[in-house]
Amino acid sequence: MSVPGWYPDPGGAPGRFRYWDGYTWSSQTTADPRMSPPAEGPGLPASGSRQQKGRSYLGVVLVAVAGLVVLALIVLLAANVYGNRSTVGGPYPSSTVSGWDDSSPTHSPTPPPSLSPSTPPPSAPTPSNSTAPLQDCPSGDPYARADHPSDGRVHGGGLSFRPVPGWDPPHVESGISWGYDLQGQRLTTEPGWFALLAVGELHRSDGFRQPQQAAVAVTSCAVTSGFYAQLSGSRQLWSKAVTVDGKRGWSIRTEVYVDRPELSVPGDVLQVVVVDLGDPDSLALFIGAVSIGDKARIGILNRCLADLKTP
């Protein structure tokens, strides 16, 4: 995932650069990416205003300006699950203490989706269709923290995992702006790139209706967010039913590719898990991202999955 810096304008203006602060894009652009960050601040919400924290309306507008290329990607990601649900990948590392179960059958991987700009946008879902994808990523409140046990684990939305030694201390993960009660850890892996593990909450009233549909929607929101400036494509590795401590959920793993020649990696392995804990108003979320080909940190991601707990 991208860290703060000047990047080619995602709106497509030739020769212009826009500042990404790790959460939102700046309104100011420049022709010289060596200049200091904009004096206005790149849009990070004030620490005293919880209502504004984690909201990135500018990011939503810029994603819309990115055009039909992004819309085609959202359609095809949804189609991978609601059409032929091709999945791949063996079980996560076994654990005698984990509540995680992904024993559903797996199949061959889906091919990389086309990014053809001629693909039409999805039609509007009917209110009664619980599997219809979102039309837009909602604005949540990652800073809306609930009460959690003081047990040393990373908590959010009713899920928890043991913190990873050597990573940044657990903090509110406001970059996941469509969720609530977000807490996670980051680790900068090289200049301009970081790994992420986080848990939080999704609200059904925002359109996240059930685990499978919500996992597709979160994957789409993450792939099309400012986390992946210069997006060049994606490939779904699996999409399958899982359980955490007996609670039903859905798991999607995707490789996300970016066109960033300065990076030593082609992109991220993006992991999304959504679990129904029985709350009529919300779903629980886990989201992780580590570099493609980084076997050590992919192992950490898998161990984190195996360690997921419910209250």
TrEMBL record:
Keywords: Membrane, Transmembrane, Transmembrane helix. Residues 108-125 have a biased composition (Pro residues). The chain crosses the membrane at residues 57-79. Residues 4-34 form the DUF2510 domain. It comes from the Bacteria. Residues 144-154 have a biased composition (Basic and acidic residues). It holds the Pfam family DUF2510. This is DUF2510 domain-containing protein. It comes from Microlunatus panaciterrae. The lineage of its organism: Bacteria, Bacillati, Actinomycetota, Actinomycetes, Propionibacteriales.
